[in-house]
Amino acid sequence: MGRRLPLRGLALALALSLALPAVVWLGYDDAPGAWVTLEIVAPLSVLTVLAGEWIARRRPGGLRRQFALVAGLGALALAAGVALFVWLMFLSSHDAVLTVLLAIYAAALVLWVTHRLGARALDDLDAVCTTLAAVGEGRRDVRVAPRGDDEITRVGQQVDEMIVRLDREERMRRELFAAVSHDLRTPITSLGLLATAIDDAIGDEATRREYAGRMNTHVRQLAALIDDLFDLTRLEARELTWTMERVAVHDLVSDAVEAMRPAAAAEAVDVHADLNGSVACSHGNPEQLSRVLFNLIQNAIHHTPPDGSVTVFVEDREQGVEVEVADTGAGIAAEQRERVFEPFFRGDASRRSPGAGLGLAISRAIVEAHGGSIWLEDATVGTRVRFRLPAQP
């Protein structure tokens, strides 16, 4: 029964139908007038509620027609109420004419305000629909640009934000495909040439062994690239699950610095740790956090000239434990700072360095998966990459 009849609307109509006669009775001590008022407003309010419920459920035509029906219903209820009061209350012709004129005046104003309000709202909806249709056709330069502070305006703002995100993601995807194609093309081309040379029996046995060794190197590069891509995809999709435990960040950094000393020595770069008396611990996976440190330190070594230095700082902060890897290299250009954590992005100073440009992107994904954050600090010399992990007592 509750699904067929608008019980709340009928309850409201009943309450109003009783409230108005009560005001007449108590305010003017007019029992007959209160009874006439009840006879007028009770059926009128019930019919208005039922008609409004029919419009709300059926939603005939477009929104413009629905607004028009609602406005017409309100004007009709007003006109009918006034006409019934004039007829049943036996007002003078002068009072009756004034009452009818006031009803027409009020109805005209209601219809005009409803028309203006509905037109503005529907124009905004049309702008949203037009913009979404253009986005569906592939355009990314369109915007709703809504004005106001209502729900439709907020929908338009969300649509504009969605278009910006979609444009950025599509641009990053195109750059990703281009970077993957570029990084795959070189080793695959080299593998093809080397395989052809071996197949054609070019050179002696030692030369063929050298070619085979080069082929193994290219295969390892391809395997590393594919593994990094797979790991990055799973990290960003939150599909990896790790065994989490209490991690002493002090010891983790010390071990990573010691492990990277031979690679730094080969580049004539000094790498050392400044633990700053840190004793904080975090909750995480030691292998993955070590991978972050290895990526950052190795990156810093590649970008530091001979006789330069790489320093790993550890600090206890109120927000958590922070680790920073600072080098004395060329640094990162200001216009490239916001993109260094994007997959395959390599700045001008990184064009000749090994790797596909996934190290910082993977590091960011791992840190964020641990509930932390990673960023670039301002540096007068070189580059400072800092990340924060939640501290655990």
Automatic annotation (TrEMBL):
User: Where does the UniProt entry say this protein principally localizes?
Assistant: membrane
One Pfam family, short name: HATPase_c
**Which Enzyme Commission number(s) are on file for it?**
2.7.13.3
Q: Transferase: present as a keyword of the record?
A: yes
The name this protein goes by in its record: histidine kinase
Q: Which reaction does it catalyse?
A: ATP + protein L-histidine = ADP + protein N-phospho-L-histidine
- The organism named in the record is Solirubrobacter deserti
Q: Which InterPro entries match?
A: HAMP_dom, HATPase_C_sf, HATPase_dom, His_kinase_dom, HisK_dim/P_dom, HisK_dim/P_sf, Sensor_HK_Regulatory, Sig_transdc_His_kin-like_C
One annotated GO molecular function: kinase activity
- From the Swiss-Prot or TrEMBL record, state where the protein is found: Cell membrane
- Domain Histidine kinase, residue spans: 179-393
The protein's UniProt keywords, in alphabetical order, are: Kinase, Membrane, Phosphoprotein, Transferase, Transmembrane, Transmembrane helix, Two-component regulatory system
Q: Which residues form the HAMP domain?
A: 116-171
- Transmembrane spans: 7-28, 34-55, 67-90, 96-114
